[in-house]
C-alpha cells in the first residue's frame, strides 16, 4: 500500500527546463564554452556541480571558478516560476492529501531555489520533507537523495511512489528500489524507459496510489 508520493520539482512541479537550458547557453557563450545542444540536453535533471564536472573533468581549478561564476550569473537571471507552474499540480496535491498520502520533494536543485518555487506557487505547506541534491556528494542519478528521503519519512521503498521526468531522476529512483511514474516532457525528448509507469498528467497519480 502506498503511503507517500515523492515529487521532483523541475519538469514536474514547474516546467522550467527549457528556461534553464537557455540560461546555461547564455552563460556558456559569455565564457567561451562550446556546448552542443545534444550535450546540453544531458544536463536535464542534473545540477551545476555535476554539469561542470562533465564539461571540465581534468581542470579542477577552472571547474570551480566556472561553477562559482555560474552561481553568481544565476542571481542576475530572474525566472518567473509562477508563469511555468504546472496547472495540474494543485488538484493533484489536494487529491493525494484527501486520500491520506504523505508528500515530499526530492530535487537536484539548490535548496533555496526549491523553497522559492514552492513558496511562490503557495504549495510549500503540502510537503512534510524537502530534500535537495546539494545535500549530497553526488546528485541524481546517484540514488542517495531518494534513499535519504524514504529513510526520513520512516517508510519502506514499496510504500512510496516517485514522480519524475528526467532520465537521471528516474534512474536514481529505480536504483533506490522505488516505483517511478514518468511525466511525459513537452520540452525535450527524454528516455523514460526505466520508469514503472508513464503518465501525461500528474493527476494520473491518483489512479496509481
TrEMBL record:
Transmembrane feature ranges: none
Keywords: Hydrolase
InterPro entries the record matches: HAD-like_hydrolase_sf, HAD-like_sf, HAD-SF_hydro_IA, HAD_2, HAD_sf, PGP-like_dom2
Pfam families found in the cross-reference section: HAD_2
Gene3D superfamilies: HAD superfamily/HAD-like, Putative phosphatase, domain 2
GO cellular component: cytosol
GO biological process, one term: DNA repair
GO molecular function: phosphoglycolate phosphatase activity
NCBIfam families tied to this protein: HAD-SF-IA-v1, HAD-SF-IA-v3
Protein name: HAD-IA family hydrolase
Gene source species: Tetragenococcus halophilus
Organismal lineage: Bacteria, Bacillati, Bacillota, Bacilli, Lactobacillales
Amino acid at each position: 500500500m502506498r503511503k507517500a508520493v515523492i515529487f521532483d520539482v523541475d519538469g514536474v512541479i514547474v516546467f522550467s527546463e527549457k528556461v534553464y537550458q537557455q540560461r546555461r547557453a547564455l552563460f556558456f557563450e559569455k565564457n567561451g564554452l562550446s556546448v552542443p545542444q545534444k550535450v546540453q540536453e544531458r544536463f536535464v535533471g542534473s545540477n551545476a556541480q555535476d554539469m561542470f564536472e562533465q564539461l571540465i573533468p581534468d581542470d579542477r581549478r577552472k571547474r570551480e571558478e566556472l561553477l562559482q561564476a555560474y552561481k553568481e550569473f544565476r542571481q542576475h537571471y530572474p525566472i518567473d516560476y509562477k508563469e511555468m507552474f504546472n496547472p495540474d499540480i494543485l488538484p493533484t496535491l489536494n487529491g493525494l492529501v484527501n486520500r491520506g498520502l504523505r508528500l515530499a520533494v526530492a530535487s537536484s536543485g539548490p535548496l533555496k531555489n526549491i523553497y522559492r518555487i514552492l513558496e511562490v506557487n503557495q504549495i510549500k505547506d503540502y510537503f512534510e520533507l524537502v530534500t535537495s541534491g546539494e545535500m549530497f556528494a553526488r546528485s541524481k542519478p546517484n540514488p542517495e537523495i531518494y534513499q535519504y528521503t524514504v529513510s526520513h519519512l520512516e517508510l519502506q521503498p514499496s510504500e512510496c511512489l516517485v514522480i519524475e521526468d528526467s532520465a537521471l531522476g528516474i534512474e536514481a529512483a529505480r536504483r533506490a528500489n522505488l516505483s517511478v511514474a514518468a511525466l511525459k516532457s513537452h520540452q525535450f525528448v527524454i528516455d523514460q524507459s526505466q520508469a514503472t509507469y508513464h503518465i501525461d498528467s500528474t493527476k494520473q497519480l491518483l489512479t496509481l496510489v
